[in-house]
Amino acid sequence: MAIRPASSRVRRGFRSTKPARSFDPHSRKETPMFKRLILTAALVAASANAFAAGVTYKLDPGHTNVIASWNHMGYSNPSASFSGVDGSLVYDAADVGKSSVQVTLPLSGLNGFSEKFNAHLNSADFFDSAKFPTASFKSTKVEAAGEGKLKVTGELTIKDITKPVVLDVALNKRGEGNNGGAKIGFDATATIKRTDYGMGMAVPMVSDEIALRITTEANAPKADAPEAKAKAGKTGKASNTK
C-alpha cells in the first residue's frame, strides 16, 4: 500500500480561513468602468429631462422670416417680408399643450421690394405704421397634429384690431446651439383676410386673402450663460420673499 506524502494530505484537506469575497453596494471602491456607467446614465437622464420638460426659447431674428403673399389680378403672386421679429416660445415635448409663443413684428422691417410700394404699404391705406408701429401674435392654444406637426391657435393684432388665427406648424429640428444651449426650428403657414384688419383697398382685384409663411430658429440660453444666471437669480430672489 502506497503511503501519500504528508504534504499532499495536508493540501487536500486544507480549508481557507479567509471569508469569501462578496459585492458591497456601499463600497466606495468603484471601478473606472462603474464610474463611466454612472456618468453615462446621468448624462442620458439629464438630456432626456431637458427635452421632456418645457424649454423657453428666444427667437433668433437673423434666422426668422415672415413672408406675406397675395394674388394680383390673377397675373402674379407678389410678396412682402417682415424682418426684425422679436419674441419667445415655450416648447414642451412631453405635453405640447403647455407650449406657447408670443411675437412682435416691427413694421419698420416691412419690405415690399420697392421703395414706392413700401411707402404705400406703410400708409393709411394699409398698415398705417406711423400710428401703429407694430403687429403682434400671441398663442391661446397649442395642439399636436401628427408626427412633428402642431396646430397653434392664437390672436393676431394689426392696427389695434385683434382676430383669431390658426397656424399649421412643422417642427423642423431640436438640437444644441453654438452657445451650448438648446436650439429649435419651425416652419408655419396661415391664411388671413386683410379686410379683417381694415385694409380693404383694391379688393377683389387684389386678393383679400393673404398667405403667410413663417420660418424661425430659436435658442435657449446655456445654463451657465449670463442670461440664464440672471434669470435664475431673479427666480431665487422671488422665492426668498415668499
TrEMBL record:
Residues 56-219 form the Lipid/polyisoprenoid-binding YceI-like domain. Residues 233-242 have a biased composition (Low complexity). It comes from the Bacteria. Residues 1-28, 218-242 are annotated as: Disordered. Pfam families: YceI. InterPro entries: Lipid/polyisoprenoid-bd_YceI, TTHA0802/YceI-like_sf. SMART domains: YceI. This is YceI family protein. It comes from Thermomonas aquatica.
